[in-house]
Model the fold of this input.
Amino acid sequence: MTRLLPILLFPLLAAFPAEPGQPKLIDAHVHYNGNPDFLPKFTAKLIAADGQALLIAAPKDIPDVRKFMAANPNRLFGLGQMSLDDPQALQLVDDFHNTGFRGLGELTGPQYSFDDRRYWPIYERAEKYRMIIMFHTGIVNRRNFAEPMNVSSDRMRVSTLDLIARRFPKLTIIGAHLGNPDYAWAAEIGRWNPNLFFDVSGSTLYKKQADLAFFKTIFWWDNVVSPHTPKTDISAFEKLVFGSDVFGDNLDEFDRELDLYRKLLQACGVSPTSQEKIFAGTLWRVLNPKP
Ligand SMILES: [Zn+2]
Done:
């Protein structure tokens, strides 16, 4: 019976009205890998789910993506893929902004820690444009075992986002992968930084499948009133936004991740109102700020 509950309860979400024009789903984390066939296929999936997505795209793909976005308005919002160490980084931020992209990401593989002062001018420029920045956080894959690489997961520890969030308060920051495995740090810095959110894409929900209630110990401050917690009645789980981390045109990952998110939120007893924000509302408000 308990296994059936998620299936039975999820449709209740439809009972909670969203803002006019708000979709049911906004996927924060989708990689475009340069195959033009991907865009219509993924968009068909989004239309079926009443969804929108942040699409991570490299500068070379801007013309294709821009053309597709113009033909399919209000479906995809660009995040510019770039390296923090690119000597032309500031110019790239300007270019992404001028092309209508809404943010940067997924930032990964930096030569220094994410919060290093050398990167501050980039964050400052992005903040000027009220951008979203998605950072890869935590353990990162190693694609080619034979090739020497100057890449370290340690430079991408989730705790490096704390300084960035405080120093650049008008940035909206998404930490991808909830800092895997530093979940506790992710939640704690999220607790004090209203401009910081996380997706829990990647291996985490597979790893924790048998123990999804674990996340209640990470997002612990619901209904806790104390001088040590921010004054808010927002559910701790609203630090999460939905992100599928579809890459390499693997559309199945979208369905798997959606299923895992639903199971996670059900296992932790997250209310339909909060789920509506996690699946769409939070990013909707970021993408459509009130004047
Ligand atoms: Zn990532």
About this structure: Residues 252-267 form the longest helix (16 residues). The pocket of zinc ion is lined by residues 106, 108, 136, 176-177 (CB under 6 Å).
